[in-house]
Amino acid sequence: MAFTAERRLADGVLEREFLLGDTPGTLWTTGTEPAPLILMAHNNGLPRREPRLVARARYTAAQGYAAATIDAPGCGDRPRTEAAEQARADLRGAMRAGEPREVVDGIFEALVGPLVEAAVPEWRAALDALLTLPEVATGPVGYSGWTALGIRLAATDARIGAAGLFAGGYVPRAVREQARQVTVPLLFLLQWDDEGNPRERALDLFDAFAGTEKTLHANLGGHTGTPAFELEDTSRFYDRHLR
Questions:
Q1: Closest C-alpha among 6, 41, 2 to residue 24
Q2: Which of 15, 21, 71, 85 measures 20 to 30 Å from 105, CA to CA?
Q3: Over the stretch 46-70, which tens digit does the pLDDT of each residue have?
Q4: Are the beta carbons of 193 and 220 closer than 8 angstroms?
Q5: d(CA 117, CA 94)
Q6: If you average pLDDT over residues 89-94, what whole number do you get?
Q7: Residue 145: beta bridge partners?
Q8: pTM for this model (two decimals)
Q9: 8 A C-beta contact, residue 226 and residue 194
Q10: How many whole angstroms separate alpha carbon 53 and alpha carbon 22?
Q11: For 176-197, what is each residue's pLDDT tens digit?
């Protein structure tokens, strides 16, 4: 891991850009003492500099955590693959045309499944590197964000100690099955009126998680309408399980 740039933000958070091989990432911290790490993952296709993700990361760091993200394959500063771009174009066309749900699901499966498969090894490599830093605690790690990636990581990497997932976003069938292996404490955020993500599917997924400590927060509004107060509740969730 090589740090390439840094700046001290007005809220006191130190924001540092890094490269891990060809993978760019960002780390936010507020001090030099070891702080619990929370991985902040964007949904597929979005850059690590997406304003809502950056706002969550800065808030999280200001609460005494180390927050980190990377650009997944085909996202942000990384080259897009022809197959993924074609799948995205097919998806937009199918949704505009009002194609049946099973047709849209098939396109989602072809797009998101490979993205998860490609992203997981890189997130694990980033986690390996981040946990060697003196300002990052070696204890349990939190995860926040993209549901499909979070399920795979929580089901297969024992270092993940708590997960905050956003119900929006397609979860491939194989990953949905892996939810039955996820036993870490879970906070599941659901936007009740998310136009692109049927709430019944999200509720079925919540049921599938195997843990005995899982919480569902449902709020009215569309995909990007998660209330700001959920940041505070999410911080308290991580306080209970990572400190």
A1: 2
A2: 71
A3: 778 888 889 999 999 999 999 999 9
A4: yes
A5: 24
A6: 86
A7: 41, 165
A8: 0.91
A9: no
A10: 21
A11: 999 999 999 999 999 898 877 7
Q: Return phi, psi of residue 138, to 5°.
A: -90, 0
DSSP alpha helices (H): ranges in the chain? 51-62, 82-96, 101-130, 147-156, 173-178, 199-208, 229-242
Assess contact for 52 and 2: CB atoms under 8 A: no
Distance from the Cα of residue 165 to its chain's centroid: 7
Contact, 69 vs 40, CB < 8 A?
yes
Strand partners, 58: none
Position 13, amino acid: V
Residue type for position 99: E
The structure tokens listed for 61 are: 């760091």
The Cβ-side half-sphere exposure at 105, using a 13 Å CA radius, reads 9
pLDDT, residue 84, reads: 79
Rounded Cα–Cα distance for residues 193 and 222 (Å): 5
CA nearest neighbour of 176 among 197, 144, 150: 150
**Beta bridge pairs of residue 23:** 20
* Helix, strand or coil, per DSSP, at residue 198: coil
Residue among 100, 157, 105, 165 at smallest CA distance from 128: 157
The full 3-state SS of 24-60, as one line of letters, equals EEEEEECCCCCECEEEEECCCCCCCCCHHHHHHHHHH
Token pair of 39 as six digits: 């991985």
Output the six-digit token pair for 155. Answer: 């089901």
